[in-house]
Amino acid sequence: MSSLLKAFNQPFDVLWRTALVRLPRAVPDAVLRYTSPDGPHPFVLNLPSRGSYDIPVYVFLPSSTYDATARADPLPVIIDFHGGGFFLGSCLEQAPFCAQMSRELGAVVLSVDYRLGPVDKFPAALEDAEDVLHAVLHEEKPGYHELRKTITQNLVESYKTKQDKERKGKSASSSGLPPMVGSVNLDTSKIALSGFSSGGNLALELALDITRNPPIVPAPWPSPFSRDYPHPIPLLLFYPSLDSRLLPSERTRPPGLPATKSFWSELSDTLAPTYLSRDEASHPRASPGLAEIIDGGLHEQARILLILPELDSLAEQSETWVKKLQENDRGHHLRVERYKGMKHGWTQMPVSWLGLAERQTRIESFEIARDFVKKVWKTGEVS
C-alpha cells in the first residue's frame, strides 16, 4: 500500500492532528540559507533501503571534500537523527548542528529523514536508521555504493559550478580552482551517532546488540556494528527518549516545568501510539533504556555523551539509565552534561526564539559534542 493510501486510511482525528504537526516539514530547504548561514548546506540523497522505498538523507560535506589535494584521507562520518516522538520533526531543524559538526570535524554528516507514524509503524524508523549505518559500513548492503557514488557526483557537479563561476569572474592573475578528481572514501573507523529526543533513541539503538529473550525478543536483533568492531563509537544523545512505556502526559514532570496545555498533551497522546503501539512499548528496540548493558547489550566500544536539560519530562528516565550504566561498570564510558533551567528541545529551536542563557548553553553544548567526538576518535576516552 502506498504512503498516501496509508495516510488516508487513518481515523480523521489522527489525520488532522498529523497535518497540524507536519506543517513545519513543508518549509523549503532553501530556508537553511538563513537558519544555518555558515553552511555547509546539504543535498538530499534518496538512499536505497531493505524495502521498496528510498530513505531521504540530508548530506553535509566539509569544504575539504571539494579539493582533491586536501582529501587524501578517508572522511569520518556522523549519522544524525532528529527528534519528534516518531510522529513529527524534520532534518531542517538539525541543520545548524549538522553543519557545525561537518565544518569543524571535517566529517560527512548524514541527517536521516526516517519514516514516521501514523503512516508507518514501529520498527520503521529503526530499520531506516540501521539501513543508513549499513550503507556506511557494509559493502554488500543496499545503499553502500549509491552513497559513495552520489556524494562523488555531487562534488563533481559542485566543482564544475564553482569552476564556471571562477572562469566568468577571474582576473588574468587568477590561478583558478584546484582539480576535482577521484571519489570519496568514507572512514569506517571513525563513525559517530547523534540524536535528539526520539532521535537519541535511534542513535542508542544502533549501538545495542539485543540477544534472544522470549517472549519480548523472540529472535536476536544484532547491531549493525559487529561485536568485534574495534573502533570507539561516540554517541551524542541530546535529551533522549529511553523508555517509551509512558505516554507523554504520563511522564513525571520535574519541579519548575509548567504543565502542558491540554490540547498539545492530548495531541501527543493521540499521535504517539500511531507509530508505537502500547503492546510493543516495552520492547528494548523501542525502549533502549530497558535493554541489557552487559553480555553483548551495549556495544563495548560505545562512548556516550548525555546532554540533559533540567526542565524535561524525559529527564527521569535518563537519570535512571545513568545509574544502570554505573551499576554495570560502564560509567567510565559516559559523560553527562546537565543544564539547569533549560527545557527539552532548546538546542533545536530557532536562535531567534531563545533567550541569552539558552543561546549560550546551546553554543556550549554543541562545542562539547564536537570536542567529545574528537577526543573519543583520537583516544577512546570520554574525559
Automatic annotation (TrEMBL):
Protein name, as recorded: Alpha/beta hydrolase fold-3 domain-containing protein
Domain (Alpha/beta hydrolase fold-3) ranges: 79-347
Top-level taxon in the UniProt lineage: Eukaryota
Organism: Endocarpon pusillum
PANTHER family, per database record: ALPHA_BETA HYDROLASE FOLD-3 DOMAIN-CONTAINING PROTEIN, ARYLACETAMIDE DEACETYLASE
One Pfam family matching this protein: Abhydrolase_3
InterPro entries in UniProt: AB_hydrolase_3, AB_hydrolase_fold, Carboxylest/Gibb_receptor
GO molecular function: hydrolase activity
Composition skew (Basic and acidic residues), residue ranges: 159-169
Region Disordered, annotated ranges: 159-181
SUPFAM superfamilies attached to this UniProt entry: alpha/beta-Hydrolases (SSF53474)
